[in-house]
Structures are given as structure tokens and as C-alpha cells.
Design a protein that fits this description.
This protein is 33% helix and 22% strand. By secondary structure, the protein is α+β, with helices and mostly antiparallel strands. The relative contact order is 0.17.
Amino acid sequence: MITPPLLVRWYGALAIAASLLATQAILLPRWPAAPRPLPAEDLETALRGARLLPETAPALAPAWPAKRSYEVATSAPVVLPLRDGFELTLMGGAVRQRFNFQTSVIGRGQASLNLSQRRLIGTPVPTARGLTQDRPTLQTCLVPGPGPEKPFGVTREQLTTITDRLAVGRDSAIEKVIGLQPHRVYACTLISLRGPKGKPPSERLWQQVLALVEPVLRTRT
């Protein structure tokens, strides 16, 4: 028979362990997990079905390999040339700490994704507009998961709000408190559409691209 003093000790030990694990998660977050490879063929099929790809698209080969550091992990990208000189790049990204969860951090390691003269716009989804290698570019990030109706974001506030929404639930909350799960996974798929010099992507094209790639990216979660 478990006596009240034993229960008090047990709950006290559990509270101390949970507190230590929470402190560790804040002060020493784990390395970001390597993002899963993107479904390149499925993405190509979706865009080809909408006739956005040129007649003879080059073979799909990653422009650079997957990378992982203490702060940021990224997948090998999918780079798809579109008609009229436009280019679509998708890359999975994960960060170690909450305050780094934003598109500017995930894309800064590659010149073709490192956005300068950055400006935020809100249509058709939260989007960053600017230049990559002097080419006009639009960017957003899709947070994987079945929950949110609007899974796109650019800033830390937007992306962490979606992640927090996905993390709700009594059972998962208890597991996180006692250290059976990490508190949050800060990961999304960076979507970058850029045009030729002096020809920015239209809102119509951007909306069409997002509508095509979103269901493909959601099915991989």
C-alpha cells in the first residue's frame, strides 16, 4: 500500500525531474533533426500537370546536399525551372531554437535563397518579397502537419504560432512535461519562387504554385 508520504515524495521527485528536463530543453536544446527528403518526383508531376514546367525540364538533381549544423539543418533542395525563366526551389529546414524559426535563418546559407531588400506582404499567404542574386523572389515556409488551416509563415511569430497550435493535446502535453517528447520541433519547408532579372513573380503565379505544392508537402507528414 502506498502511503501519503510516499506519494508526496514520488510527486516531488517527478516535479524535480520535469523541472530539470524543462531547464535543459531551454538552455541546451537538442540539435535540429535532419529534415526528410522532399518528394521531388511528386512535386514535378504536380507542376507538369498544370503546365508550369518547360517542355524539356532537366533531370532532377539536388543543387547542393543536405546540411546539418548545431543551429540549422536543411534537406537537399528540389529546384524546378518553370516556364518564362522562373525558378521554384523547395528545401526542408529545421532550427534548434525557437527565436531562429524564420525563413531568413533557414535560407541564409545559400545564395539563391538568401533574401535581401526583404519586405513582408500578406497575400495570398504570409510572404517575404525581395531579391536573391539580383533576381526578384517570393518566399514562404509551410509547417508540416494535419492541423492548421493556414500552415504558411515567414516570421518567428507566424511560424511558432503554427507549431504551438500543432503541439496541443492533453496526452502530448503530459509526455512533454515528463521528457518523453521534445517540447517543440521547429521545422518547415521553405518555398522560394524567383523570376528573371526585372520580372517579379505575379501574385497569380505565386498562388498557383502554392496551391499545387501544398497538398504534396502535406501528404509526406
